[in-house]
User: Which sequence fits this backbone?
């Protein structure tokens, strides 16, 4: 799959008088990119800007030439987003219905939708839970469902905001393996630094600024220094 070019040009963002991002200039093209920083550093706001969930109050965000201010709907068809809490994304009563809901605007007929849904459930280990009440799944299964419901639309980019924070160690490892095996470009916000093993690039934010940006080992060394 061709990698998407994501560009942030002079990006800033404020919530009222509180500035959470300032003067961010990034071009993201790598297959696996991590975003790390302390709570309040601006990393989750930056992640939400990539598919237009949050718009910059200064500068612009461009995804393969599409500006998030003007073409957010087109960008969201290319860039899927997974939240920390899967309950924020699960909207339908059963597992299969929830995945199918993501395909409501796909143009597929009923048979094609069901085939794609069942293939996705099988791929991500949820085939045996197709008719299970979605909100009665375990925490790990809910996160898998949230991921499946995004990935069934076949986005080019997957942005995950703290996808393992609410999971135990075993389920966190399962999600890490799933993300490692995807063909999509993956951008992950995380405090779980082990999740970044094998990544191409890590961006470190502090107080709304990019303070380190490079290979995993170098960026994480800079991040740990900030914590000392």
Assistant:
């Amino acid at each position: 799959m061709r990698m998407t070019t994501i560009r942030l040009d002079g990006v800033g963002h404020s919530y009222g008088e509180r500035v959470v991002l300032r003067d961010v200039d990034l071009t993201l093209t790598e297959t696996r990119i991590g975003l790390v920083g302390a709570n309040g550093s601006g990393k989750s706001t930056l992640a939400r800007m990539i598919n237009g969930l949050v718009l910059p109050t200064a500068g612009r965000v461009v995804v393969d030439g599409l500006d998030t201010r003007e073409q957010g709907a087109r960008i969201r068809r290319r860039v899927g987003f997974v939240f920390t809490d899967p309950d924020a994304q699960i909207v339908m009563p059963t597992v299969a219905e929830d995945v199918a809901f993501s395909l409501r605007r796909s143009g597929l007929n009923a048979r094609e939708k069901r085939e794609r849904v069942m293939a996705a459930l099988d791929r991500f280990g949820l085939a045996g839970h197709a008719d299970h009440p979605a909100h009665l799944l375990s925490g790990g299964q809910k996160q898998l469902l949230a991921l499946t419901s995004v990935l069934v639309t076949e986005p080019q980019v997957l942005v995950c905001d703290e996808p393992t924070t609410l999971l135990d160690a075993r389920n966190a490892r399962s999600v890490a393996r799933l993300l490692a095996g995807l063909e999509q470009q993956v951008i992950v916000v995380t405090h779980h630094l082990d999740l970044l093993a094998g990544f191409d690039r890590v961006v470190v934010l502090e107080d709304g600024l990019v303070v380190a940006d490079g290979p995993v080992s170098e960026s994480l060394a800079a991040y740990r220094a900030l914590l000392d």
Notes: The first strand starts at residue 6 and ends at 15.
